[in-house]
């Protein structure tokens, strides 16, 4: 006779062995029970898998984490990965499919998740009327090449902005479209203190031409400005 075996569930994550024996009995009271030799039945792990992505919609260039849980057997991905979790940076919309299988079993379990990739946005370029100015002066920064909305580090959103740095300052701008932003474009405007004149002094009194010429000298140094300082004397 044939006996179907059911009701054994393996949740250990590996194959287990279950042994079955047949016990024979008869109606005669003087019959002894007879037991057959044991038969080993190997039970494969229960198959199950569920996958997820850290974000379902991303911008080109972003990195996501794709994970699978619940598979206690062999896990494979359509990307070739065999680990439970991995990072990916897709450039186009893609489906990730995980398959959970066990050796010796024809049945497999699959799950999938789609990640939608929005096209990347090119970073704008910045031009300035001046890149070196004195404190208190202004310069105009202009962004170009943005197909979306601009956002400056100053919180302004216009194509051109006027800045008056009081020191050497970095300014940046990004281009935004929907949920995506470009890489940051930056420019440095170098500011210099305004040149302040020093003080001069000389010998007072009457000077006779050709005799006892007075001495005129700088008593305090000028400050500010940029580069090598030159002094030109002027008589009035």
From TrEMBL:
For this entry, the protein name equals Ig-like domain-containing protein
